[in-house]
Each structure stands twice: as C-alpha cells, then as structure tokens.
Specification:
133 residues; transmembrane helix; mainly alpha; 7 helices; globular; membrane; DoxX family membrane protein; 75% helix
C-alpha cells in the first residue's frame, strides 16, 4: 500500500508541476499577458516588467522545490496557496460556466494540491527531503 501511495503522490506532484511550470514560463516569455492576468483577476494594475520578473523568479524557485520534493511543508504549502488564490480570484468565471468551462479544471488541481500538502510526509518517491533523512 505504501508503494502505491508514493507512486500516486508522485504522479500528482508531477501533474501539478507541469501546470505551475507552464504558468511560470508564461511570466518570463509573455509578461504582457501576465500583467493583464494580474490586473483582471487580482486588481493589480500597472505591474512593471521588473516586478513581474521578480515574481516569476520567486515562483520558479518554489515550483522547482515543489517538483523536487524539497522543503515540502513550505513548497507544497506555497503551491497550494498560489493555486487557491488563482482559483478563488476567478470566481466571476464560475458564474457563467459554459463560457468559461476551462476554469473548472482549477478545482481538481486545487484538490490535488491540498492532498499533496496533507499527505506530504508520504510523498517520498523522488523526494529530496526523503533523500536527506
């Protein structure tokens, strides 16, 4: 059972990482898009390129730590908080579901983030934290 749990948690971690990594890359590659997202969903208008680059760098460090299973309490918690913020800030899209159907994919990913955080001690497969115990 422990092996199946470890494999399941690793697969969740990899799946969440892929999404978070792509969102992070978007901040570097297309900062104008990121600026629009921050303005529309978080009410943060006028963020400059430098601020977005700093945010992207911080997010990249967190996402890579998460992928590596490093500092699990903090990296998994940060991923959970980032994704929860993204999910809840999109509340208007849920009011018109059939025009924004893709936004509903955020909910199972949020559940995966929560499961990973709550079960982080069992997420041992390919985890740096586990390697240094």
């Amino acid at each position: 059972m422990e092996r199946k749990l470890a494999i399941s948690l690793l697969s969740l971690r990899i799946g969440v990482f892929v999404v978070m990594f792509m969102w992070t890359l978007d901040k570097f590659i297309n900062p104008a898009h990121t600026g629009k997202v921050f303005a529309k969903f978080y009410g943060l208008e006028g963020l400059g390129g430098e601020a977005l680059t700093v945010l992207a760098c911080l997010q990249l460090v967190i996402v890579l730590a998460f992928a590596a299973g490093a500092l699990r309490r903090y990296s998994y918690g940060a991923i959970l908080l980032m994704h929860a913020g993204s999910t809840f800030s999109s509340w208007r899209q849920y009011l018109d579901p059939f025009d924004h159907l893709l936004f509903f994919a955020a909910w199972p990913m949020l559940a995966a983030c929560l499961a990973l955080y709550l079960l982080r001690e069992h997420d041992t497969l390919l985890s740096l934290d586990q390697q240094f115990r």
